[in-house]
Each structure stands twice: as structure tokens, then as C-alpha cells.
Automatic annotation (TrEMBL):
Highest taxon above the source species: Bacteria
Function (record text): DNA ligase that catalyzes the formation of phosphodiester linkages between 5'-phosphoryl and 3'-hydroxyl groups in double-stranded DNA using NAD as a coenzyme and as the energy source for the reaction. It is essential for DNA replication and repair of damaged DNA.
Pfam families xrefs: BRCT (PF00533), DNA_ligase_aden (PF01653), DNA_ligase_ZBD (PF03119), HHH_2 (PF12826), OB_DNA_ligase (PF03120)
Single GO molecular function: metal ion binding
Annotated source species: Pseudochryseolinea flava
Name of protein: DNA ligase
Catalytic activity: NAD(+) + (deoxyribonucleotide)n-3'-hydroxyl + 5'-phospho-(deoxyribonucleotide)m = (deoxyribonucleotide)n+m + AMP + beta-nicotinamide D-nucleotide
Enzyme Commission number: 6.5.1.2
Length: 671
């Protein structure tokens, strides 16, 4: 393909992908499947890699991330990102209106009302219609440059639609994590034995500052914009209309109000209706609409005099605690759940609420029969926040946390430094067994979509499946025993199980369900160790050398492979024909500069990820080892390296080098 042909095809693919992106994220419609869309993106990426000189700053491939940012540069805001004054009171809103009227000397004015989204403020800077910078609020005067991460958010335009926009301007918005995405993320964390995130806002904030933009892209953040700066418009409403015209995602929940009574109607209208939205909201923002009047009203030291934020009070209701039930997860973690007298809270009927763990029950000093306060707040799942002790029965007794598994009656254990209790009966606890099979077949793991929770339960009850390996022993006559399964559905199920044998090692490693090993960690381990046998043979120290692996994960992986039942399961899965070797290609060799010298990589580095360093070493003729020994040439040491590794290297006389010294080696200099 000639350069001219490549350029033409890149242009056509870019236009097609942008069209489908806009259709999906702005109009909530789709004309092609996710697979077809991913195919277009993959084809564009291939062309850009083959012809890097043709890649544009606004290419849709920027959306998938992949760049690593070790330190976020500080950027001074051209227009300070001031905070707004807050109120929870309608009376104070009328006082605000009185100050506006006084400041405008009786001139007529109107308000523009918008919902206040519970997310992370962002400043987006555009030059000639192209996104060039995304900056966090920071302290209001300066923030962090998070452009690489912002580009992964699908409904933030990389290139504007239409014409007539200024050469340089700024847009303010709110990055947030949709409720559905947050719930799924917590489900995934629970699935690998990690604690759930507390709320969507803090999770979005942490995501925006992640070092790996590829991981940011997977989090599926969203953004609503609400302000246009750097262009002449008569009113705030005019700016909003321009933003809509240029392809920005503006929430359609705004309204222009002629007076403070209209503002109060808007606030009342959305108090309950906002709960139906796909994101968390915590109030409304009220602004004087006319820009000239905004200028006349001016600012205090901290906030504009022409705008105010009205906060909805977090709805908290009291209801009776009828009991506590205990749920057992796939990893054996036991979660207590409050069983409540039903109440209507924040738009839904609430019968159950999270109690988190034994520590939380003790902190609340809970008693069965107590009247407890329940809130939704910024969380998806309601939580118990306090006890109304004035209503407590004097004869009530503190809740005693269970000491045996509610599913299999095995004594519970509690690991040092952890809040949760666990059932250790991994091979005999029904919930854990079924949970491991459900985890194994999920889309991000083995992707056996003909199976579901109900079918797995039937298989377990009939004694057909007691572990994931049993799936590969199923015969037609076995599946015909299941309710609703006939010849065609049996064939689909068995074909799906057979096809799963082609699933790459990275997904298989995630599927086998090692505690704390999520999808990303599984991919890093598979790439670093190459085979399941190498992982199984690794020491804790060797595991710590792999990217993304800390002490908790290393201990969990090591203990998993020491367990005889797990070893037996892996052997059966091997015999079934699953993939246990990574097919990721070794980087092509570029030089012999490192002369077959061996390296162990440990710690955190300023300019590189550990797997990047591994690639560089292999490309330049070096070798990467997993553990320190007397035969090792160099220990490449970053920040926060484990002290035991350094001590061992010093004891054996192994040369310890810094990131800068490693770069000198790459230049051919001796140390």
C-alpha cells in the first residue's frame, strides 16, 4: 500500500469511527456491533503503526490509551477554577437573589440552572478545533496535566464538529463514573477478593490520575461540559448552545429561569427525578445568565457573586433492623447484610443495606431490633450510618459476629491486617464452588456464554460440575439432564466449552480465580513468566519482580500454587487442552549493546514501567531473570524496592544500578 493510499484509508476509517462514536455516545444509538467497531479501530491502529507519520493528534486510536505518565506536569489555569458558595436552604437562595438584585441596581436579570454532577472538575483546552490539554482543578490556580487520560474518554471531542469556533478557547466540565460502570467495577473487585470502592466520585478522581492511560480507558469514564471560556457570547446559555453545536456532551437537564421562583421550581422538580439519571448528582448550580451582568457582580476572594450551588440533603431515614444475614463470595469472603423493615429511600424501596464487616458492626454497636439510619448518598448500595439509640430496647444485646460459614458450617478465619472473615473450605463450600465456576465462564475469562448462574447451580446439584475442570468432562447425556436443554441447546453449550480451549493464556490465568489477581495482573503475570509452570515454580521474591505485583498478590499467587487441590485442578485443565503458555511475541532485537548481561528489575521507576524495561533489555541483547543469585549481572533498582532483594544483592556482590546508569549502559558506556 502506497503512502497516499494509506493516508486515504486512514482518513476514511477515522471518519467512520468518529461517526459511530458520536452516534453511540451522543445519540445513544448504534448501527454496528461492538466487535465490528473494535475491528475498525484495530485496522486503523495497524495502519498508523505501519505509517506513524500519518497519525494525527485527534486519531480515534488515542481513545484506547496505553501511554504511561510517571509525573503529571503542573499547569497554571488561564481562568482560575473557583469554587462556588454552597447552601442547603431555600431561604439562603432567596438571600442570594437579594444580593444579585442589589448588585445589579434593579436591572432585570434571569438565571440559568444546571444539575451539579458528583465528579471531578476538568478544564479542556482547544486550539484550532483540536483538544490539546486536559487539566484538573487542583487548587483552583494550578492543576495537573492529565491530557493523555482525558483523551480516552469517548464523549470528549478530540476534534470539533462544525465551524466558527475560536482559534483558542477553554471548556469546563465534570468527569464522572456512571452508576452502572461503578457497580460493575465493584463487582469485579469483589470477584477477585478486593474491597469495594466507597463511591463513584472518589473512584473517578483516582482514575483520572492513573499512570497507565490504558487502564483509564477500561474504566469507561464519562464527561458533561457546562461552561465555555475564551469566546465572546452575550449569555451563559449562548455558550451552552455553541458547545452543543460543536459536538460536546451537554446534559439536557439545564433550564433558563426568569426569577428565583422559577429556580426553586427547578430544584423541586429534580430533587427526586435526578435519582433516575445514570450518574450521581448532589445538587444544582444557579448562575446569572447574562455575561455583562456577571462581570458587574464580580467575585469574592473565593467564589463568584453571580453563582451559587444548592446542595440536596442526603436522604437518611430510620427503620427497624430485623436481622443480619451473611453472604459468602467466590473467594470465601463473608459480608454481613442488614435486613430492614422496607422503606422508600431516594427513589427505591430499600429492604437491605451493607454493613461491610465485623469492625463496622462493632463501631455501630448494632443490636437486632435497633432503629437504624440508612443512606444512599454517593453509593449505589444503601448503607447503615448510625443507630437511633433513643429507641433502643434496654434488654437488647450486641450482635455477635458468626464464627462458622453460613453455607458449609466451616469455622471462619480472619487474616492479619484484614477486616473481612473468610471461609477456608474452598473445595467443599457450595457457594464458593459455584462462584468459581461462574467466575471461570465469564466474558473476561473463558467467555462461555451458553452457561449461566442457573445452569451452573443445576449442574452442581446434579453432581455434574464441582470445579471448572469438570466442564470439560461433560457429555451430551449429562447436559440433557438439565431443565430446558434439548439437542440444539446442548450442542451450543458443548461447542462453547470446546471453543473456550482457544482462549489465550492471559484470560485462562484470570479465569482460574487466584485471589487478588484481576484481569490486568493476570496479563502482566502471563507476559512476564510466559507459562503457568514458571508461575507455579516462582518464589514470592520471584513473583514480586513481575510488573503490578506487590506483597499481597505475590503471597496469594504463591499460596495458590502450593495447594495440592489447585495443582490437581491445573493438571486437569492442561489435560483438557487449555492454553497455558503466552503467545505474546518477544520484542524484535535491535542491538547487542547489553551483551547477554542478566538483569533483575525491582521497584518503581521515573520514566518506565517494569514491563517496558523488560522489553528494552530483550531488544538490546540482555536477559531478564526473576530472582537475585550470584550469577546475576545487574539489579536494576527503582524506588520502593524490597529491602530483602537489595540485601541479597549486596551480600552476593551483585552490582546495583539506577535508572540513569541503565540508560548509560544502553548508550554503550561501561559502569
Amino acid at each position: 500500500m502506497s503512502l497516499e493510499q494509506a493516508q486515504k484509508e486512514i482518513q476514511q476509517l477515522t471518519e467512520k469511527i468518529n461517526y459511530h462514536n458520536d452516534l453511540y455516545y451522543q445519540k445513544s444509538r448504534s448501527e454496528i456491533s461492538d466487535q465490528e467497531f473494535d475491528g475498525l479501530l484495530a485496522k486503523l491502529n495497524q495502519l498508523e503503526q505501519a505509517h506513524p507519520q500519518l497519525k494525527q493528534a485527534d486519531s480515534p486510536t488515542q481513545r484506547v490509551g496505553g501511554a504511561i505518565t510517571k509525573e503529571f506536569a503542573t499547569v497554571y489555569h488561564q481562568y482560575p477554577m473557583l469554587s462556588l458558595g454552597n447552601t442547603y436552604s431555600e431561604e439562603e437562595l432567596r438571600d442570594f437573589d437579594g444580593r444579585v438584585a442589589k448588585g445589579l441596581d434593579g436591572d432585570a436579570y434571569e438565571y440559568f440552572c444546571e444539575l451539579k454532577f458528583d465528579g471531578v472538575s476538568i478544564s479542556l483546552i482547544y486550539e484550532n478545533g483540536i483538544l490539546v490539554k486536559g487539566v484538573t482543578r487542583g487548587d483552583g490556580v494550578r492543576g495537573d496535566d492529565v491530557t493523555t487520560n482525558v483523551r480516552t474518554i469517548r464523549n470528549i471531542p478530540l476534534k470539533l464538529k462544525g465551524k466558527g469556533y475560536p482559534a483558542n478557547f477553554e471548556v469546563r466540565g465534570e468527569i464522572f463514573m456512571p452508576k452502572e460502570v461503578f457497580a460493575q467495577l465493584n463487582k469485579e473487585r469483589e470477584d477477585i477478593g478486593e474491597e469495594r470502592y466507597a463511591n463513584a466520585r472518589n473512584t473517578a478522581s483516582g482514575t483520572v490520575k492513573m499512570q497507565d492511560s490504558g487502564e483509564v480507558a477500561k474504566r469507561k469514564l464519562d464527561c458533561f461540559v457546562y461552561s465555555l471560556l475564551g469566546t465572546e457570547t452575550d449569555t451563559h446559555e449562548d455558550g451552552i448552545k455553541l458547545l452543543e453545536t460543536w459536538g460536546f456532551n451537554v446534559s439536557p437537564t439545564y433550564k433558563k429561569c426568569k426569577d428565583i421562583n422559577g429556580v426553586l421550581e427547578y430544584i423541586h422538580q429534580w430533587e427526586m427525578k435526578r435519582l433516575e439519571l445514570p450518574l450521581e448528582t448532589d445538587g444544582a448550580v444557579i448562575k446569572v445568565n447574562n455575561k455583562e451582568q456577571q462581570d458587574r457582580l464580580g467575585f469574592t476572594a473565593k467564589s463568584p457573586r453571580w453563582a451559587i450551588s444548592y446542595k440536596y440533603k442526603a436522604q437518611s431515614l430510620s427503620t427497624r433492623l430485623n436481622g443480619i444475614t451473611y453472604q459468602v463470595g467466590r473467594t470465601g469472603a463473608v459480608t454481613p447484610v442488614a435486613e430492614l423493615e422496607p422503606i422508600f429511600l431516594a427513589g427505591t424501596t430499600v429492604k437491605r443495606a451493607s454493613l461491610h464487616n465485623a469492625n463496622e458492626i462493632a463501631r455501630l454497636d448494632l443490636r437486632i431490633g435497633d432503629y437504624v439510619f440508612v443512606e444512599k448518598g454517593g453509593e449505589i448500595i444503601p448503607k447503615v450510618t448510625a443507630v437511633d439509640k433513643d429507641k433502643r430496647d434496654a434488654k437488647s444485646q450486641p450482635v455477635v459476629y458468626i464464627d462458622k460459614c453460613p453455607e458449609c458450617n466451616t469455622p471462619l478465619i480472619r487474616f492479619e491486617g484484614e477486616a473481612n472473615h473468610y471461609c477456608p473450605n474452598i473445595t467443599g463450600c457450595p457457594v464458593q464452588i459455584k462462584g468459581r465456576v461462574e467466575h471461570f465462564i465469564q466474558r473476561k475469562a473463558m467467555d462461555i456464554d451458553s452457561l449461566g448462574e442457573r445452569t451452573i447451580d443445576q449442574m452442581y446439584q446434579l453432581g455434574l460440575v464441582k470445579s471448572p475442570a469438570d466442564l470439560y468432562d461433560l457429555k451430551k447425556e449429562d447436559v440433557l439432564k438439565l431443565d430446558g436443554y434439548k439437542d440444539k441447546s446442548v450442542k451450543n453449550l458443548l461447542d462453547g466449552i470446546q471453543k473456550s480451549k482457544e482462549t489465550p493464556f492471559e484470560s485462562v490465568l484470570f479465569a482460574i480465580g487466584i485471589r487478588y489477581v484481576g484481569k490486568t495482573v493476570a496479563e502482566k503475570l502471563a507476559r512476564y513468566f510466559k507459562t503457568i509452570d514458571n508461575i507455579a515454580a516462582a518464589t514470592v521474591e520471584g513473583l514480586l519482580a513481575a510488573p503490578e505485583v506487590g506483597e499481597k498478590i505475590a503471597q496469594s499467587v504463591y499460596q495458590f500454587f502450593q495447594n495440592a487441590e489447585n495443582q490437581k485442578e491445573i493438571t486437569r485443565l492442561k489435560q483438557a487442552g487449555l492454553q497455558f503458555e503466552s503467545t505474546a511475541k518477544e520484542p524484535e532485537k535491535e542491538s547487542d549493546t547489553l551483551g547477554n548481561k542478566s538483569f533483575v528489575i525491582s521497584g518503581v521507576f521515573e520514566r518506565y514501567e517494569r514491563d517496558q524495561l523488560q522489553d528494552i533489555i530483550l531488544k538490546n541483547g540482555g536477559r531478564v531473570l526473576s530472582g537475585v543469585s550470584g550469577k546475576l549481572d545487574y539489579l536494576l533498582a527503582g524506588d520502593n524496592m524490597g529491602p530483602s532483594k537489595r540485601e541479597k544483592a549486596e551480600k552476593l556482590g551483585v552490582k546495583i544500578i539506577t535508572e540513569q546508569e541503565f540508560e548509560e549502559l544502553l548508550k554503550g558506556h561501561s559502569l
